[in-house]
User: What shape does this take?
Amino acid sequence: MSTHPVLRLVDFLVNRPGWIFCGMYVDPPQPPPGFTLETRQDGFLGFVTHYRFVPEVKANG
Assistant: This one.
């Protein structure tokens, strides 16, 4: 049984691997020590919709 195309679209837009969905009008939490915050924005209105924590990159030398 195949999934309805609308449900597949919603799943694609909301459930992105490695990203956490926070919804519109909600600020993502502060990153833990040693990490930076990356965000993804809605392409139409510019709201933050997803976030993830990425380890900080330190320069050599």
Q: What stands out?
A: The chain is about 15% helix and 30% strand. The longest helix spans residues 5-14.
